[in-house]
Amino acid sequence: MSLTIEEIGKRLGEYEGEEIRIMEVCGSHTAAIARYGVRSILSPKIRLISGPGCPVCVTPTAYVDRLIELASTPKTAVVSFGDLFRVPGSRYSLSEAKGRGADVRMVYAPMDTLKLAVEEPDTTFIFAAVGFETTAPVYTLMLDEIIGKGIGNVKLLTSLKTMPGVLRWLLDSETKIHGFLAPGHVCAITGSEYFAPLAKEYHKPFAVSGFEAEELLIAIYGLVQMIREGRCSVENFYPSVVSAGANEVAVSQLEKYFRVSAAGWRGFGVVEESGLLLKPEYQQYDAGSAGLFEDRKRNKACSCGEILKGEKTPWDCPLFGKACTPQNPQGACMVSYEGSCLAAFSTGGQN
User: Fold this and answer.
1) Is residue 19 classed as helix, strand or coil in its secondary structure?
2) What is the DSSP code string of 253-295?
3) Residue 348: pLDDT over 80
4) Sorting pLDDT into bands at 50, 70 and 90, what band is 1?
5) How far apart, in whole angstroms, are the C-alpha atoms of residue 47 and residue 312?
6) CA distances for 329 relative to 86, 238, 267, 323, angstroms
7) Residue 4 burial (CB < 10 Å; 0-12/13-18/19+)?
8) How far apart are CA 346 and CA 341, in angstroms?
9) pTM of the model
10) Bridge partners (DSSP) listed for residue 322
11) pLDDT of residue 67
């Protein structure tokens, strides 16, 4: 018998069984859960944990440092979306480097970089290509344009990551997670079955969710039922956008330009087979992306790494809301609107 959303909310609020820990691994889910006050609806026995789903948050300091190095080179400009500007490197953020004279520019779309390159042919433009499976296909279209139009003064510095590798790393580290809210945006590219091997191998259920309040509650309720019944599979609660199979055009583009590689994750270290690098035949468009693994905290008390692993919540960090605020972020999780710390701060510190 189907339930109304009111009945689903009531059942989730009245749940009194064993504690259930659910990790969402999509930054947009993290932001939506905070915006809609989803945690306030749930029983204290149902814990939502924010995982490594914010691409800016998991970008290591070595990558930021490399961008700053490039932006400080004569006749070279770094181009980025705004959410990367204040992510701390080992010494400075891009915003701070810009204040010190580095050539750092903000764009709203990757293709804007190509317009800049045509207008300033004597400047080399480095686009900061950060993201997961969701945004990586966009960068392949950018490469199509660069190659097709013969634009020779644009390169990419990539920090592209994929979900299965890092989730495997988390599960191997015995982080206590009973089930996952699978990232709807990623699944729109990869298909929901992308996570089926993990569900089978680690006996963990995955629920693909949309981003509206009702969609989140339905997926959480479905996941709770799967956990209680011991069903370790992938269920798609976002069928209007996600299908079981992959978007073949997008996947074909990814396979054309990129190869699977190890990747550096902020707070995690190196995770094998969790990244994408340009293939050797496209190295002329790469600005030195390989091996950017090092991650040094600017503030040793920052708990971003533990928060991204699900070992701590933002409220457990001694800096949260005190030394670390959106105006003065000490870690990447307080910078992006998809970051768990900024999402928590926006709720007034409510857990």
Assistant:
1) coil
2) HHHHHEEEEEEEETTTEEEEEEEEEE-GGGGGGBSS-TT----
3) no
4) very low
5) 12
6) 8, 34, 16, 8
7) exposed
8) 9
9) 0.93
10) none
11) 98
279-335 tens-digit pLDDT: 999 999 999 999 999 988 778 899 999 999 999 999 999 999 999 999 889 999 999
| Partner residues linked to 348 by β-bridges | none
- Helix, strand, or coil here: 99? helix
Q: Which residues pair with 179 in a beta bridge?
A: 22
Q: What is the mean pLDDT of the chain?
A: 95
Q: Which helix (H) or strand (E) holds 136?
A: helix 136-148
CB 23 within 8 A of CB 176: no
Q: Amino acid identity of 41?
A: I
**Residue 291 zone, left/alpha/beta (φ > 0; ψ -120 to 50; rest):** left
Q: How far are the Cα atoms of 54, 55, 221, 309, 313 from residue 217, in angstroms, in the given order?
A: 21, 24, 6, 23, 21
List the 206-208 sheet strands across, edge first: 46-50, 20-24, 179-182, 206-208, 234-236
* Contact call for residues 83 and 100 (beta carbons, < 8 A): no
Residue 349 · residue 319 · CB < 8 Å = no
User: What is the DSSP track for 151-210?
Assistant: --SEEEEEEEE-HHHHHHHHHHTT---SEEEE-HHHHHHH-GGGGHHHHHHHT--EEE--
Please compute the mean of the pLDDT values over residues 143-165 and round it to a whole number. Answer: 97
pLDDT exceeds 70 at position 351 = no
| Residue 346 DSSP symbol | H
Asked whether 282 and 294 are in contact (CB, 8 A), the reply is: no
Find tokens 């490469």 and name the residue: 143
Token pair for 35: 């915006």
Separation between Cα atoms, residue 327 and residue 324, nearest integer Å: 8
Position of tokens 């926006």? 346
Backbone torsions φ then ψ of 50, nearest 5 degrees = -85, 125
Q: How far apart are CA 18 and CA 7, in angstroms?
A: 20
Is the per-residue pLDDT at 29 higher than 90?
Answer: yes
pLDDT > 80? residue 183: yes
